[in-house]
Design a protein that fits this description.
With 494 residues, this protein is mainly α. The chain has helices at 2-23, 29-34, 41-52, 55-68, 74-96, 102-110, 115-145, 149-198, 202-208, 221-237, 239-245, 251-282, 292-300, 305-340, 359-380, 384-408, 414-435, 441-460, 466-476, 481-493. The radius of gyration is 22 Å and the shape is globular. Keywords: Membrane, Transmembrane, Transmembrane helix, Transport. It is found in: Membrane.
Length: 494
């Protein structure tokens, strides 16, 4: 294992070195939080694919393939579909808004008062996403170094917190590009063909396994529909995903770069399911489906290659973890703390009456603070699947309708948005208590209740102020925020 250890150590050292390099570039809030909005198509595609394809997509995707065969690809496939929908239909408008968070978009669209409550929901989601990604280090470092669970979490979490806090989005972008390359080589180009060959080839796999392992919808229509509601819609509204959209150099990069990343996700989904299917042939009696990835890597791959593929799994976890961490810190600082202090206006700009702040220092401090919280919660928490399900249900059930409604329906009002968040969120929580956290009913009825509340309250309350809509329309057209405000003021004066 000495060669494999060397590969992993070099990889981890490279992550920290890129964090140090990124610190030299992140001199402003824009550079620190959204990489100066300067990413071109190559870097944008790679980093977007890296953040959405985490440990669940890699280790969990192979596990679903082990259990269900080719239809196990559907979870990751719906993630790719969500990224494609976001990129083709919404990303250009999102990028032109020049905001930093989803809550800033809601305040800009509805005229304020929606930011804090939506920020709390988004903060809970990004926090739990970071926690579940951090816990995945325990599995990987246990395979590599036989570390106890808490030590593995502290080691992996410290590395991610360090490079994220040093250079912000620039560090995360650079490390994500390396992680994207490592994942592509390790999973698609090495593990996939080796797994098929070790299983005896495609014909032998079909001979050894039941026919439903090769049925495209074998996992079940209801399961696929639930994946669409949670993951496809979750891709449309998550702060971790939007924050990457904000890094695009222009709306064309956001649209077509994201389309490339979404297509890559579809290929990655199929690869994971095929690897899991091959593992079922080789190891039909594993104790847990999630052991399939580590088992096939440690038992079937040659020295050096094994280290690279384990580095690929580590890359998948780190990319999601770092993206969720900076999203969590951004929301905590800009949407909750700064708003409670009254340091920002409803459009996300700084309040001129407030003293000037070192925003890079503030955001770096929040990454450190949230990073420590994530590590401690990860050590204490056991049932992460339920915790992440709660977060996703609240995100989609509470925020999907007001976000998409704001982008698509002019008549939506701030009261309708607040009602949608409250009614959808409370319905989800109540039904999870009644039917269980992992039940499908909460997200179904939560979305429906949120939609009804949004439509009914919006129609029953006065339309949004035309001046607010004018600024919103100007921002959607890509005008500079200050120019948009000046244009509205001039129009009102005339």
């Amino acid at each position: 294992m000495a060669v494999d250890y060397a590969v992993i150590v070099v990889y981890l050292a490279g992550m920290l070195a890129m964090g140090w390099w990124g610190m030299r570039r992140a001199k402003s809030k824009s550079e620190f939080l959204v990489a100066g909005r300067r990413l071109g198509p190559g870097m944008y595609s790679g980093t977007m694919a890296a953040i959405v394809l985490g440990g669940a997509s890699t280790i969990g995707g192979v596990g679903l393939g082990y259990t269900h065969g080719l239809s196990g690809a559907w979870m990751v496939f719906t993630i790719g579909l969500g990224l494609l929908a976001l990129s083709l239909f919404f990303s250009a408008r999102i990028a032109r808004l020049k905001v930093y968070t989803v809550s800033e978009m809601l305040d800009l669209r509805y005229g304020g008062r929606a930011g804090v409550i939506s920020g709390v929901v988004m903060w809970a989601y990004t926090l739990m996403l970071a926690v579940t990604s951090t816990i995945a280090y325990a599995t990987i470092f246990d395979v590599l170094f036989d570390l106890p669970r808490w030590a593995a979490i502290v080691l992996g979490g410290t590395i991610v917190v360090a490079y994220s806090a040093l250079g912000g989005m620039w560090s995360i972008t650079l490390t994500d590009m390396v992680q994207f390359v490592v994942k592509t080589i390790g999973v698609l180009l090495l593990l996939l063909p080796i797994a098929i060959v070790k299983a005896g080839g495609w014909a032998e796999m079909k001979a050894q396994l039941p026919s439903d392992y090769f049925a495209p919808f074998g996992i079940g229509g209801q399961t696929i529909f639930t994946y669409v509601l949670i993951y496809t819609f979750g891709m449309l509204i998550g702060q971790d995903i939007w924050q990457r959209v904000f890094t695009a150099r222009d709306d064309k990069v956001a649209r077509w770069g994201g389309t490339v990343a979404g297509t890559y996700c579809l290929a990655y989904a199929i690869a994971g399911a095929v690897i899991g299917t091959a593992a079922k042939v080789m190891y039909p009696d594993l104790g847990s489906p999630d052991d399939a990835f580590a088992t096939i890597v440690t038992d079937e791959l040659p020295v050096g290659v094994r280290g690279l593929v384990l580095a690929a799994a580590l890359a998948a976890v780190m990319s999601t973890s770092s993206g969720a961490l900076i999203a969590c810190a951004t929301v905590a600082n800009n949407d909750i703390w700064a708003r409670l202090k009254g340091a920002v206006r409803h459009d996300g700009g700084a309040d001129p009456s407030e003293p000037a702040r070192d925003e890079v220092k503030d955001n770096r401090a929040f990454i450190l603070l949230m990073g420590v919280a994530v590590i401690l919660i990860s050590i204490a928490l056991n049932n992460v699947v339920e915790a992440l399900t709660v977060a996703y249900n609240l995100l989609v059930g509470g925020l999907l309708v007001p976000i998409l409604g704001g982008l698509l329906w002019r008549r939506g009002t701030v009261y309708g948005a607040l009602a949608a968040v409250a009614v959808g969120g409370l319905t989800v929580v109540g039904l999870m208590a009644a039917f269980g956290v992992l039940a499908t009913e909460p997200i179904y009825y939560g979305l429906l209740a949120s939609l009804v509340a949004y439509l009914a309250v919006s129609l029953a309350t006065p339309p949004t102020d035309p001046a607010v809509l004018a600024v919103w329309k100007a921002r959607l057209a890509g005008h500079d925020p200050s120019e948009a405000a000046d244009a509205v003021a001039a129009r009102a004066a005339s």
